[in-house]
Structures are given as C-alpha cells and as structure tokens.
Specification:
Blueprint: E1 2-7, H1 10-19, E2 27-32, E3 42-43, H2 51-60, E4 65-68, H3 71-76, H4 78-84, E5 89-90, H5 94-101, H6 103-112, E6 120-123, H7 126-134, E7 140-144, E8 153-156, H8 159-171, E9 182-186, E10 191-199, E11 204-206, E12 211-212, E13 215-217, E14 221-224, E15 229-232, H9 239-259, E16 266-275, E17 278-285, H10 292-296, H11 304-312, E18 327-334, H12 354-357, E19 360-363, E20 366-369, E21 372-375, E22 379-387, H13 390-402, E23 410-411, H14 417-420
Parallel strand pairs: 1-2, 1-4, 2-3, 4-5
Antiparallel strand pairs: 6-9, 7-8, 7-9, 10-11, 10-16, 12-15, 13-14, 15-18, 16-17, 18-22, 18-23, 19-22, 20-21
Helix pairs in contact: 5-6, 7-8
The structure holds adenosine monophosphate and glycine.
C-alpha cells in the first residue's frame, strides 16, 4: 500500500512514523515534509495549498490513502478535490472543516445543538464590540473569528485592554481577514484538556486525553504559541468524565453536523475546559492536534492504517481502539524568537544519541542544507518518550534534550510536571 501524508510538522512526522509500522505499507510519500520525515518517506515538493497538483500526484503514483495533517488544505477543500476524482483520503470535507475555519460558525453550532460552551457574543462592527465590553464584567476572552495560527485569542482583564485588542483585530487587522468578525466570550476556569476522536460521520471513538502547554514560558507565562509540549494520557479525564464528553460533546457534535448536511469524517479535535459545572468546549479543530498527536500516537496499539482506511471508506468497523498502558511526553524545542520571529539555518547537533536513550525526535521546522540538518524556523523538534510512568518519560526526554544543541534553542522545562507534581529542579 502507498500512502501520501500532507504536511510538514511534528504531527506529520509522528503520523508517518506510526503509519510506517503497519504491515501492509510499502511506501510513504510526504508533501512537503521536512528533514526528519525524509528518513522514512519520499519527500514530494508540492505545497500544502496546491490541491490540484497534490491530487495529480496521488493519481499518477496510484496512492491508496492520503492523510492530511494541517487545517489549511482541509478548509480549502482537499478532501472534496480528492473524492471527486475517486481518490481515498482521510479527513473532513470543506464544509465539515468549517467547524475549525470559523469560530463564529462553531459557536452558533454549539448553541444550536446544546453543546456546553462559554457564553458569547459575535460582532462584525468594532463600535458595537467596544460598547459591549465597556459594560461587561472581567476577565473576558476576545477572539478573531477566522484562522490565526493559534494566536487570535486574547484574555483581557480591563476595558482598555479589551478595546486595544478589538482595534488590533478589527481595525488594524493584525490577523488579516480572520478579523472581519470577532467573538467576546465568558472566561472559563478549570483544567484544559484535549480530546481527539476518530469518526466515520456516525460512530465516534475518543482517543486517550492529552494536555498541551500553549504558552512559550515555564509556568504558563508569555505569549500563546502553537503548543510547546504535551503529555498523554491525563488524569483530568477519568472514565466517567470521558463518558460525559462523549455523550454531551462528541456524539451531539457529529450527529449535529450530519443533520446539517456536513457529515464529518476524520479526526475531530476538541479543546475542553473541565469546569466545576462539567466539560465545556473551548474550540474544535478539524485535524490532529500538534504537539498532542506526537504524545498520543506512540501509545496507540491498534493499527492506524486500518482505522484510517475504515474512516476514509465511511464505515468505522473497529470495535475498540487499544492503547498501551504507558505514559508519553513530547517537549517542543523551538528557535530563538518563537513565536514572534522565525530564526533559521542553525545547524542541529546531537540527534544521534536520542535513539540510545529511547526517545523519538519528531521534526517540525527542519531542513537539509549543505548536507546538514538545520533549523527552518518556529517549532523545530518534538522530543518524545513513552515509559511505564509519566515521571520516567519526562526524565528520558529531558536527558535527551541535554544532548541536543543549536544556536538559540529554547524549550519549556515544565512539560507534564503539573501532572506528576514535581518542579523542574527535580530533573
Ligand atoms: P483558542 O484561540 O480558542 O484556541 O484559545 C486559545 C487559548 O486561550 C485556549 O487554549 C485557552 O487556554 C484560552 N481560552 C480560550 N477561550 C477561553 C475561555 N472562554 N476561557 C478561558 N480560557 C480560554
Ligand atoms: N496544540 C493545539 C492545536 O493543535 O491546535
């Protein structure tokens, strides 16, 4: 079987790594990939948004299954383009992907299907938004409506902060088109978890829960990023809470989308805050989370290709998804200046020892230049280990990172630490 993975981050490296373990897989291609992915897949130099060329490639190479990582090709309709040509692909259609592409759509949807979420207002006129926030109680959450690479959300504590944020998003348009509309939301208090679920549009099977670390600095401080590390499973979601999430969130989401004629096939990502009033949905994504996927896939026992084929064919036949009785942690190593700037072309050293320690190093922003593995901006590596306990996995990952070096590397020293109740001085 030949598989095409679309994407170029740590998530796609983890996907390609897991898919390569399936018996029937003879060849993996990845477009556009990165330096790490090139070790287990043939790199295809086609951009993420070049849907027609990607479909031409899949047709020409007789690809049996295409797996899409990032949201952009999904929201542009890669699944529709492939399916029109009879090509098998894992992911939701353009219409179903709108659950991530527009926060306003997602909030309206949740209201309509009684899916628990923070109360909210949507504005397309900045003056109306400013009037509303002058009378609201704080803290509040202000969000750009469209895709803003995870950076379009600001928690504000005062009316003047709220007003400045509204101006940035709607008037100065710092996130471009994503700021045409804006949401103002109730601030939810509680533990934040990620639950990703596999679905054929009817049946929904949740994966183990995971927890991301979104801020750049230790102790959850500094600006929001795409995610600086994750671990799985979490102890925030015992079986009883997972059942509530399935009943109150996942099932009604998938049946609601089907009722609206937006049948959702693929993986549905839910960002959930577990409040003292139960689970509340913060956000949906129409794809696997990154870095969460890097911490979740090493725990998967069931064959991933089988799951993807079933879903792509529209019928999830598997009764149960099996997980290893282990914990896994992924620590993201980023370049200097991330998330604001993108420093590149620094030689990465010390990757050879990671295998010996028992770590996987999933590449994100890496490239090969002059025969060397160099940084390519943003998040660079996801150093990952699974072990019998979360504590043991964390120890392994940080030992491995000690041996990795590139100019300006930065990472958080507290990934997963809250769950094991130790601080970074322990390691
Ligand atoms: P989003 O842009 O919706 O993905 O949100 C980014 C981050 O902001 C989330 O991961 C939360 O940590 C935080 N956040 C977003 N909405 C809320 C909310 N209503 N209450 C509390 N925190 C929030
Ligand atoms: N780690 C957050 C996301 O994938 O959206």
């Amino acid at each position: 079987m030949k598989i095409l993975v679309v994407g170029k981050g740590g998530r796609e490296h983890a996907l390609a790594w897991k898919l390569a373990q399936s018996k029937g897989v003879e060849k993996i291609y990845c477009a556009p990939g990165n330096a790490g992915i090139s070790k287990l897949a043939e790199i295809v130099p086609i951009g993420l948004t070049d849907l027609v060329r990607l479909a031409d490639f899949a047709q020409e190479k007789k690809i049996d299954l295409t797996v899409v990582g990032p949201e952009l090709p999904l929201t542009l309709g890669i699944v529709d383009v492939f399916e029109e040509r009879g090509l098998r692909i894992f992911g939701p259609t353009k219409e179903a992907s709108e659950i991530e592409g527009s926060k306003a759509f997602a909030k309206d949807f949740m209201q309509r299907y009684h899916i628990p979420t923070a109360s909210f207002r949507i504005f397309s006129d900045p003056a109306e938004a400013v009037d509303f926030i002058s009378r609201a109680s704080y803290p509040l959450v202000v969000k750009a409506d469209g895709l803003a690479a995870g950076k379009g959300t600001v928690i504000v504590n005062t009316p003047s902060e709220a007003q400045a944020t509204i101006e940035n998003i709607m008037v100065k348009k710092v996130f471009g088109q994503a700021g045409e509309r804006l949401l103002v939301e109730e601030f939810l208090e509680g533990e934040e978890v990620t639950v990703m679920a596999l679905t054929d549009g009817e049946r929904v099977i949740p994966m183990v829960s995971s927890q991301d670390h979104k801020r750049i600095f230790d102790g959850n401080t500094g600006p929001n990023t795409g995610g600086m590390g994750a671990y799985a499973p979490t102890n925030v979601i015992p079986d009883k809470m997972m059942k509530r999430i399935v009943d109150e969130v996942l099932d009604p989401t998938i049946s609601g989308l089907a009722e609206m004629g937006r049948m959702y096939k693929g993986v549905l990502y839910t960002g959930i805050i577990v409040t003292d009033r139960g689970p509340k949905v913060l956000e949906y994504n129409c794809r696997f989370g990154d870095p969460e996927t890097q911490a979740v896939l090493p725990l998967l026992e069931t064959d991933l290709v089988e799951i993807f084929l079933d879903i792509a064919d529209g019928y999830l036949n598997i009764n149960e998804i099996k997980w290893k009785d282990k914990s896994c942690v992924c620590v993201v190593v980023a370049s200097r200046g991330y998330p604001e700037s993108e420093e590149k072309d620094k030689v990465i050293e010390g990757l050879d020892r990671c295998d010996e320690i028992g770590c996987m190093v999933f590449h994100a922003g890496t490239a090969i230049k002059y025969g060397k593995c160099v940084t390519n901006g943003g998040r660079i590596l996801g150093v990952t280990a699974a072990d019998h306990s979360l504590r043991a996995a964390i120890a392994k990952v940080y030992e491995c990172i000690q041996g990795i070096n590139f100019d300006g590397m930065q990472y958080r020293r507290d990934i997963g630490m809250r769950a094991v109740k130790v601080d970074s001085s322990y390691f």
